[in-house]
């Protein structure tokens, strides 16, 4: 999660004003390699960044190509870890096949929303009454905050808001839509940094009274 946060911070400034691109490239290469050594699901971070870089191929193709080069160098540094990656992915595939079918979306989506926004069921949110009440509150408050954050961010800095949306949404969507039968909240924590930034920006753009109520 820490490495993904640093990765997002680097990418926020990657297509910004010129200067210190070499230092950013070196940092991006090392952080990406470290993420890959930490957990193979770090590969999902490359998905939103790749889409973001592709959006800049026309207006900043040198920066987009620089991002691609940094990713290539990171994968070169990760070559000693490829056998372990292959082993982990094979083990995960076998374990996935031994499980039941993926949970239905009508149960999976509320569980993910609840655990990512409210808290784990193991902490007491498994109680049906508490769960219904907190989910109802979350269904109102959190989408409202994100909507405020996206709207305010889009007016202030459309480019970085797009990166935050991609970073918060694409990895989770890619994982869930892949048909994986094992879905755990810890898999998605590295991408929550962008989501929290949008929530915070939503709070910051609200009026004082509405912010206090929220």
Describe the structure.
The protein is an all-alpha fold and 214 residues long. The protein has ten helices and no strands. Helix 6 (105-117) crosses helix 7 (128-156) and helix 8 (158-177) crosses helix 9 (192-205). The longest helix has 29 residues, at 128-156. The two termini are 27 Å apart. The model has no long low-confidence stretch (mean pLDDT 81).
Keywords:
214 residues; mainly alpha; 10 helices; 74% helix; flat
Number of strands: 0
Please compute the radius of gyration using only Cα atoms.
19 Å
Q: How does the major sheet shape up?
A: none
Helix-and-strand structural type: mainly alpha
Unreliable spans are none
* Oligomerization status of the protein chains: single chain
Total count of helical runs of at least 4 residues = 10
The gross shape turns out to be flat
Please provide the ordered H/E string of secondary-structure elements.
HHHHHHHHHH
Strand content: under 5%
Between the first and last Cα atoms, what is the distance in angstroms? 27 Å
Bin the helical content.
over 70%
Please state the average pLDDT score.
81
How is the secondary structure organized here?
Blueprint: H1 2-14, H2 21-38, H3 43-54, H4 61-77, H5 82-97, H6 105-117, H7 128-156, H8 158-177, H9 192-205, H10 208-213
Helix pairs in contact: 1-2, 2-4, 3-4, 3-8, 6-7, 7-8, 7-9, 8-9
């Amino acid at each position: 999660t820490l490495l993904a946060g640093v990765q997002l911070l680097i990418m926020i400034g990657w297509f910004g004003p010129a200067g210190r691109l070499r230092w950013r490239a070196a940092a991006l290469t090392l952080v990406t390699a470290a993420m890959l050594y930490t957990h193979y699901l770090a590969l999902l971070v490359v998905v939103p960044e790749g889409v973001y870089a592709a959006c800049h191929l026309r207006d900043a193709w040198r920066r987009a190509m620089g991002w691609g080069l940094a990713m290539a160098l990171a994968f070169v540094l990760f070559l000693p870890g490829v056998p372990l990656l292959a082993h982990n992915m094979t083990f995960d595939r076998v374990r996935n096949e031994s499980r039941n079918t993926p949970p239905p979306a009508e149960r999976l989506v509320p569980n993910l929303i609840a655990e990512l926004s409210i808290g784990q069921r193991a902490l007491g949110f498994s109680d049906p009454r508490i769960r219904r009440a907190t989910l109802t509150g979350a269904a109102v408050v959190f989408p409202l905050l994100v909507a405020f954050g996206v709207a305010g961010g889009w007016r202030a800095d459309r480019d970085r808001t797009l990166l935050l949306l991609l970073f918060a949404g694409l990895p989770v969507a890619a994982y869930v839509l892949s048909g994986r039968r094992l879905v755990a909240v810890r898999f998605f924590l590295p991408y929550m940094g962008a989501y929290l930034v949008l929530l915070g920006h939503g709070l910051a753009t609200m009026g004082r009274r509405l912010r206090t109520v929220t």
